[in-house]
Design goal:
three-stranded mixed sheet; BirA Bifunctional Protein, domain 2; eight-stranded mixed sheet; 29% helix; 11 strands; alpha/beta; 262 residues
Length: 262
């Protein structure tokens, strides 16, 4: 289903940040949208250092914090559900908007719309992909890329290409997803206590394409793929959103109470 196109989406590339800042940016925009201080956002970003994000409902006991600390890997809990992802050699997308911007405002329709934007973006860089019709694979694994979920993106042959997670609260949706350029995300098995089995099918843009796909090329394709369906304008975080981002990164996302809430 199409968005209402009542107002434009800010498109921004925010570069590299640690996990606390990246997740705080999302929540700051979400709070701003709820209180009518913000406008919709499509943000593309990276992680430094490599960081594991765990789902909102996921238990922190899944994570081997000793190995993470030893290797200098970050870890943060997301607002959205789903399972753990190692964000390393990738670009991540984050899209936030309200009922004002999309109708009908339902999880299924939103997932499918965003999935179509992603498939279009991949097609622009010569990668054939498809929207997963039904969740399959190991549903009990703490590892997000162990199996594709319904409405996620996988390669035409085999293997999950983009892992996405969504939350709707107070009339605001936030959805983000990891788009791996290489198979570096498979290193996550080292940081999961459960002894998650080796990947049965591994996919990445490098594997799905006959050409080397760089960050700039992917960024350009994402902007155009989403831009075919949304009115995008160049944007940045507002002073209000930057202030909330700083507060949340210190008082919430870097705190143990948030990490160990499950």
């Amino acid at each position: 289903m199409p968005p209402t196109k009542k107002r434009p989406f800010r498109f921004m590339y925010s570069g590299e940040n640690n996990g606390y800042i990246n997740m705080s940016m999302d929540e700051a925009v979400m709070m701003g949208l709820k209180d009518h201080h913000s406008t919709p956002v499509l943000r593309i970003y990276k992680w430094k250092p490599p960081t594991i994000s765990i789902g909102y409902f996921q238990s922190a006991s899944d994570i081997d914090f000793e190995n993470i600390e030893k290797d200098g890997v970050g870890v943060v809990r997301r607002l959205t559900g789903g399972r753990a992802v190692l964000h390393d050699e990738e670009l991540t997308y984050s899209i936030l908007f309200t009922e004002e911007d999309f109708s009908p405002f339902k999880k299924r329709e939103i997932f499918i719309f965003i999935a179509r934007c992603l498939v279009d973006a991949l097609n622009l860089i010569g990668i054939d992909s498809k929207i997963v019709e039904k969740t399959k694979g190991d549903l009990k694994s703490p590892n997000c890329f162990a199996s594709p979920a319904q409405y996620e993106i996988e390669a035409m042959k085999e293997g999950k290409l983009i892992g996405s997670a969504q939350m709707i609260k107070n009339g605001v949706v936030v959805q983000h997803g990891a788009i791996p350029l290489t198979g570096s995300y498979t290193r996550i098995v080292k940081y999961l206590k459960s002894g998650s089995p080796a990947f049965k099918s591994v996919s990445s843009l490098a594997q799905a394409s006959c050409n080397d796909i760089g960050e700039k090329e992917l960024l350009k394709a994402l902007k155009k793929g989403f831009g075919n369906h949304l009115h995008l304008i160049e944007g940045r975080l507002s002073d209000y959103e930057n202030k909330i981002t700083e507060e949340l990164s210190v008082k919430k996302y870097s705190q143990k109470y948030w990490m160990y809430r499950k």
